[in-house]
Design goal:
Elements (H helix, E strand, L loop, with lengths): L1 H8 L25 H18 L3 E8 L3 H6 L4 E7 L11 E9 L5 E6 L2
Antiparallel strand pairs: 1-2, 2-3, 3-4
Length: 116
């Protein structure tokens, strides 16, 4: 969960020695919630995880808002991923997992493991 948090909290170009690292989510914040924006956000989530986290393989990203959340301008996402505990070492043995991604009260992105 820590590495997912770091990916989404880091803006592209923010790290001096690894300029292309990051999730690019901050660029989407503050925009009007439209179906196109939600589709773009799900694609950005999936792409960032695919590129930067070898221990996870994204299966599906879903928008999980209630009508009331959308009215308030808050949206959460659930990513269905395949967890590869030793993926960073080249071992691609898999086990399913679900990750919820949402914003905290302070406005920062936070990833949490969701029970299947």
């Amino acid at each position: 969960m820590q590495s997912v948090d770091v990916i989404f909290e880091t803006e592209i170009g923010e790290r001096v020695m690894l300029r292309h690292f990051g999730g690019g989510m901050r660029r989407l914040l503050g925009r009007k919630l439209t179906p196109d924006l939600l589709a773009l956000a799900t694609a950005v989530f999936a792409l960032a995880i695919t590129i930067w986290e070898p221990r996870l393989r994204v299966v599906k990203v879903s928008v999980a808002p209630s009508v009331e959340e959308i009215r308030q301008g808050a949206v959460s996402f659930v990513m269905e991923v395949i967890y590869r505990p030793r993926g960073h070492l080249g071992d691609m043995t898999e086990e399913p997992a679900f990750i919820g991604v949402g914003f905290t009260e302070a406005g920062t992105l936070q990833a949490t493991r969701v029970a299947a």
